[in-house]
Amino acid sequence: AKNVGILAMDIYFPPTCVQQEALEAHDGASKGKYTIGLGQDCMAFCTEVEDVISMSLTAVTSLLAKYKIDPKQIGRLEVGSETVIDKSKSIKTFLMQIFEKSGNTDIEGVDSTNACYGGTAALFNCVNWVESSSWDGRYGLVVCTDSAVYAEGPARPTGGAAAIAMLIGPDAPIAFESKLRGSHMSHAYDFYKPNLASEYPVVDGKLSQTCYLMAVDTCYKYFCHKYEKLEGKQFSLSDAAYFVFHSPYNKLVQKSFARLLFNDFLRNASSVDEITKEKLAPFSTLTGDESYQSRDLEKASQQASKSLYDAKVQPTTLIPKQVGNMYTASVYAAFASLIHNKNSELAGKRVILFSYGSGLTATMFSLRFHEGQHPFSLSNIASVMNVAGKLKSRHEFPPEKFVESMKLMEHRYGAKDFVTSKDCSLLSPGTYYLTEVDSMYRRFYAKK
Ligand code: ACO
């Protein structure tokens, strides 16, 4: 199989959201902390009728319908999620309801979990399958689904929720450059979920930022090294049109891209211009650790990378800024933003993705765009996803209502024997929603 990659995509996020500006005021944070400080505009959240299973049912059903894919044509289904609803039964098995109906139960794959990285593990599994000798000619399907919620406190505004479905196969408009990958995996307690009675993570915010930036650096080093071995020349920012990051909040994305430029500067890559060299020269002798602590370096590198950021990163930021951190779906939502914004200009271009999951696991990898053929064309993917329409038809909740909803969800997490309000008035037709959890903890869903 050649040019294996993403043939089709769809995204779903809850229509319920809270404005960061309103949340900021409600939380008593200083004005601008969430909007400018974190760089976030709005945050989506699941109300009591939605969860990671309903969102993934919606995303998968919608993708199959809109691209006219017969469920029998799926041979592998992989889910990435860090939202634990059951410690044994995979989310994938819930999704099998869609496929059983058409008589297809011959579908490999289960769930992958490690914080926000599970979706990337799932994606690699599917791509590797299509590239392997066990491939049977059918499509792979990857689903990233998460509801990111935090206890009250500084991390709360960095929540979000979404599900993304991606169809995997050969001759894709979004093809993997499979040899170009750099990973960094290590043991850290930056963000983890040891309390099984709560949906909320334990998070060391500052440590998680540093771990993330160190992972960016290390993955980029390995990535550049592999590129050089393969191509016989140095890689630099000028060798890719766009850079897409896992996006817990936009400020971290700005800092990460600035780090890449700093890396180019340190390696003396050819693309770094004289002005940048001048700006970053004072920091060339910092040790690695010092460089993560230096506010001056952070400022100087963000300034130096501003115009490159506007060209190569800004087009990827729309959905993460509007929806928030979607954990496993976050980097693919950023990628979906790029397709939404630039679909007609992408053919032939290279894009680099950076996926990060706390704990920690990270990979930087490369994709190449091709025009593609209907229905698997970049323009059709953009129109199917209908990002602008979905963003526009949302319902803003006041912060009080959002907090009330979080309290109810805390109560419901891990609970049994309840029925939901079944109020699906805010959901668009075709959306799945939770109706009941019975006395055996079995979950039931309906479709609007
Ligand atoms: N106007 C403008 N900017 C402001 C204002 C204001 N009024 N107030 C603060 N800021 C800026 C700060 O200067 C800072 O920006 P800087 O880093 O460029 O200096 C930014 O806003 C955040 O302020 P902090 O005081 O650093 O925020 P705090 O420590 O309260 O929380 C944090 C931020 C750590 C990101 C928290 O939200 C968190 O823990 N989130 C979850 C962890 C996370 O997402 N980690 C990322 C990788 S791991 C993952 O994906 C889960």
What's a quick, concise take on this entry?
The chain has 448 residues and is of the alpha+beta class. The protein has 16 helices and 19 strands. Helix content is 39%, strand content 22%.
In whole angstroms, the N-to-C terminal distance is: 39 Å
Strand share of the residues? 15-25%
Q: Using DSSP, what is the number of strands? A: 19
* Overall 3D shape: globular
Structural class assignment = alpha+beta
SS field, number of helical segments: 16
Q: Unreliable segments (pLDDT under 50, ≥5 consecutive)?
A: none
What integer is the average pLDDT?
A: 97
- Proportion in helices: 25-40%
CA-based gyration radius = 21 Å
Strand arrangement across the biggest beta sheet: 5-4-6-7-1-8-13-12-11
Bound small molecules, deduplicated: acetyl coenzyme *A
Biggest sheet overview: 9 strands, mixed
Structural features, described:
With about 450 residues, the chain is of the alpha+beta class. It contains 16 helices and 19 strands. It has helices at about 20-25, 35, 50-65, 90-100, 120-130, 205-230, 250-265, 275-280, 290-295, 295-305, 305-310, 320-325, 330-340, 380-385, 385-390, 400-410; strands at about 5-10, 15-20, 40-45, 75-80, 110, 140-150, 160-170, 175-185, 190, 200-205, 240-245, 350-355, 360-370, 370-375, 375, 395, 420, 430-435, 445. The strands form 5 sheets. A 9-stranded mixed beta sheet has the order 5-4-6-7-1-8-13-12-11, sandwiched between helices. It is globular and about 65 Å long. The two termini are about 40 Å apart. It binds acetyl coenzyme *A.
